[in-house]
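Hey all, quick one. A colleague (J.T.) asked me to put the calcium ion job into the tracker so the inputs and the structure tokens live in one place instead of scattered across chat threads. No bug as far as I know, just bookkeeping. Sequence used:
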Amino acid sequence: MKSFRSVAGGFLVAVATIASASATPFTNETLFQTAAGGGLSVETFEGFAVGNQVGSLPALGVTFGELFPGQFPEVANGLGIGGTVVSGTNVLINNDNASLPADGPIVIFAVPGSLITALGYFNTSVDDTTRLSFFDSNDVLIENANSGNGIPAPFLGIFNVVGATRVEIQSTGNANNFISIDNLQIVTASITEVPEPGTLFLFSLGLAGLGFARRRRTA
Ligand SMILES: [Ca+2]
Ligand SMILES: [Ca+2]
Ligand SMILES: [Ca+2]
């Protein structure tokens, strides 16, 4: 009987390990890029005019959610809004026409059929610290991490092999919630297999083992 119980416990431990094994935030851009591997693309926002809304970045394989109906994240002059820059003069902001109050989080979606496995940026807000969150297709938080703030702009990146359907960048609420980012860098991966059935299979094996052990114990 004891051997059956330990087998069941082993399966449950394996499932828990799979769910948490890939948590890897980076505050160093070079280490992030090394971990993220090939296929990384960087957006400096220098190809946009100030005031342009950014609904998608095809080269990075992502689209953006609206800050509020009819308003996507917008390109601004980083120094002109009281922040800083990492490249050129432009940054991306969570605001309309850089006017307070600030608006919702910057929401980034992987294009259908793909997942975001790595995403990094510099927080050029100077005052606000930011939170980077990865969510799966069921809207469950995979992993998050908080950036620093100040000058020079601190980097924050997450590499997560599970892959996110949606990523959010938002203020942590320590300042005026108006945030800007620069040198957004992303790796996406095509969905070649759906991981859920395998995980569910392992989980159901664990449950079956528990049930079997329980039946044997009462017998
Ligand atoms: Ca820039
Ligand atoms: Ca606003
Ligand atoms: Ca701010």
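Adding what we noticed when we looked at it: Confidence is low (pLDDT under 50) at residues 1-21. The pocket of calcium ion (ligand 2) is lined by residues 95-96, 99, 101-103 (CB under 6 Å).
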